[in-house]
Design a protein that fits this description.
The chain has 82 residues and is mainly β. A 5-stranded antiparallel sheet has the order 1-2-3-4-5, with no helix packed on it. The protein is globular.
Length: 82
Amino acid sequence: MKLGIYNEEKEKESKVLRLTLENINGILLKAVDEKGKYISNICSITPNGKLRLCHSISKSLGLDLNEDGRINLENLEFKMLD
C-alpha cells in the first residue's frame, strides 16, 4: 500500500510518501526514499501507547508542519478502520 499526496495543480507529478517502521523500545515511523534510504523520523509510539511527534521533519516531504517541524495535527482527519 502506498500513501500518496494529491497535488491538484500538478496531478501528473503526485508525490509518494514512503514509510518504514522500526521496532526499538516501541515503534518508530520513518520516511524513506524510493531506495529505502532514511529521510526523516515522523513519530514514535512508546511501549505504553503514547504517540510522540518527532520535530524537525524534512520540509521536502511536503507535510503540513508546525513551527517546530512537527506534523500539524489540527488539519488531519482521522478515520476508524473496520
